[in-house]
Amino acid sequence: MYYNNNFNRYDEALESADKAIEINPEYGLAWLLKGYVLLNIANISEAEFSFENAIS
To answer: SUPFAM superfamilies annotated for this entry (predicted)?
Structure first.
């Protein structure tokens, strides 16, 4: 996920994060990375939701 995010492959990074979350919804790192991706594509409200899930 991190690799795809660094090379502006946000769609692939988001897909990877979603798969990880589907497998384990409690996986905070996946939520955190999803939040970063969403922040990079200016989807602020969904990024905030992802960050909140990362710390809960």
So the answer is: TPR-like (SSF48452)
